Amino acid sequence: MAEPILKWAGGKRQLLDELYARFPTDHDRYHEPFIGGGALFFDLEPPDATINDANPRLVNFYEQVRDDPEALIDRLASFDDPEADPDPSLPYDETTARDRSVESYYYQQRARFNRRPYESEFDPLTEAALLLYLNRTCYNGLYRENADGGFNVPVGRYANPDWVQRDRIRRASDVLATTTIRNDDFAYVLDVAEPGDLVYFDPPYEPMSATASFNEYSADGFDREDQRRLLDVAGALDEAGVWVVVSNSGVMYEPYAEAGLHVDVEGATRAINSDPDNRDAVDEIVATNVPPDERLDGGQRGLPEF
After folding, report:
1. Of 63, 144, 157, 289, which has the most beta carbons under 10 Å away?
2. Alpha carbon 250 to chain centroid distance?
3. What top-level class of enzyme does the UniProt entry assign (predicted)?
4. Alpha helices in the chain (DSSP H)
5. What's the average model confidence in pLDDT over 171-176?
6. Under CATH, what is the fold of the domain 13-55+183-294?
7. By the 8 A CB rule, do 303 and 3 touch?
């Protein structure tokens, strides 16, 4: 079974059984417009699927995993321990582009990652390798961008971090081999989904309160107008005979119920939190247009912890 390679905010490892329980007994092509870490996608291993994300770096990463897994593994294997000294043969071994001191190998790679979109030459393989390296060595595995789109998470403290992820990359590459990978707006699915297909939406969550935020993983964010558009897209798919499953925060219960979907509240555990003791359960909803008597019987097991 394939497993997610990246740690990603809002991962669905612990919600897999609840999601499968809302699947139809049978469906055709599978589409996931907000792929993120891909917990459900890699567990399902669907043939001829489409996946999408608004984050171009994440999309590039999956393209490299699909198209050139061994080269990606080799590039990752060449990286050093995050607390090692900076590599003098690479850029930013002393200061960042903003003239800030570089304290270790990790911060040198972070500086390289953040400058790459502005440099004249772009190496998608290096970009993908840096993304996974930083994801697996940064503090708590948190992907976060500032307002300028820069990755700004500090280094983590791990005894033996595994940033190469050989087995996961190879298994994921096999699953992605027949997958169409897109960097579009989520509404692309209106053009590709056919009657009998299944679409799973896992958008950045509507905040549970004025101070809580589930959408800080991207500089662009995902606002309430996007949430309303998502409701409209789900409704259009329903009318077209496409199966729809959506997960979101509990505050979206009423909008989905009013749209005519079957909605249930599920408990979920925060996958990423700076305080491990505060990864408490929060309300999530799972909404679907699949009638209860047409759903898949039983769920599949959840993925192991990272």
Report:
1. 289
2. 20
3. transferase
4. 16-20, 39-44, 56-67, 69-77, 105-115, 124-137, 166-176, 189-192, 224-239, 253-258
5. 98
6. Rossmann fold (3.40.50)
7. yes
Stated pTM of the model: 0.88
Spell out the residues 6+ positions from residue 28 whose beta carbon is closer than 8 angstroms to its own. Answer: 194, 196, 197, 198
Q: Of 118-132, 234-248, 268-282, where does the model show the most confidence?
A: 234-248
Structure tokens at 283: 């309300």
pLDDT in tens, 50-81: 999 999 999 999 999 999 999 999 999 999 99
Locate 284 and state its tokens. Answer: 């999530």
Amino acid at site 44: L
Per-residue pLDDT of 114-152, as tens digits, reads 987 666 567 999 999 999 999 999 998 888 888 777 899
pLDDT attached to residue 208 = 58
- List the helix and strand counts (H, then E) for the chain: 10, 7
Residue written as token pair 């790459």: 116
Q: State the pLDDT at residue 17.
A: 93
Residue-by-residue DSSP string for 100-151: PBP-SHHHHHHHHHHHGGGSS---HHHHHHHHHHHHHHBGGG---B-TTS-B
Rounded to whole angstroms, how far apart are CA atoms 244 and 242?
A: 6
> Amino acid identity, residue 176?
L
Residues 6+ apart with CB under 8 A from 149: 117, 219
Token pair listed for 265: 């509240």
Tell the CATH topology of 63-164.
Adenine-specific Methyltransferase; domain 2 (1.10.1020)
pLDDT tens across 209-219, in order? 544 444 444 44
The rounded distance, in Å, linking the Cα atoms of 278 and 269 is 9
E strand or H helix at 152: none
Domain locations along the chain: 13-55+183-294, 63-164
